[in-house]
Amino acid sequence: MITCDMRYRFIKKTGIAVLVFLALFFLLSTNAFCGEQQLVKIGVLAKRGTKICLQKWSPTAEYLTSKVFGCKFIIVPLDYDEIYQAVEKGEIDFVLANSSIYVELECWYGVIRIASLKNKRIGASYINYGGTIFFKANRTVFSVADE
Length: 147
Prior knowledge:
Blueprint: H1 4-27, H2 30-34, E1 38-45, H3 50-67, E2 71-78, H4 80-89, E3 94-96, H5 99-109, E4 119-121, E5 124-126
Parallel strand pairs: 1-2, 1-3
Antiparallel strand pairs: 4-5
């Protein structure tokens, strides 16, 4: 004879098993069952050319592919003009560019940063980026208002 307590334990165990099954089913999408990987494109400013860009950043894409289940990361080298078009058209999922380009991408296309790159130089990490403008002493400073 089945008691109330036994019926309750059976229903509880069955319910837990069903929840675990459903959780696994939804966590393992159809892509995982089919062996397909989602392609994730990382657009990188190729300031020194495509070949050097791929040499420098492909190991990062390979590492991410090995660590993020169901995704294949690839590097998309972009020059200064292409990077804006790629973001505008949604051709890349992530972008790696210098800070001045990032500011424009954020302003124009709503790009949001998730990390900042620290460059190592002479044994130290640097996150600053800067530039200098030189002009001859006998010339006036150009301003947009002068046009």
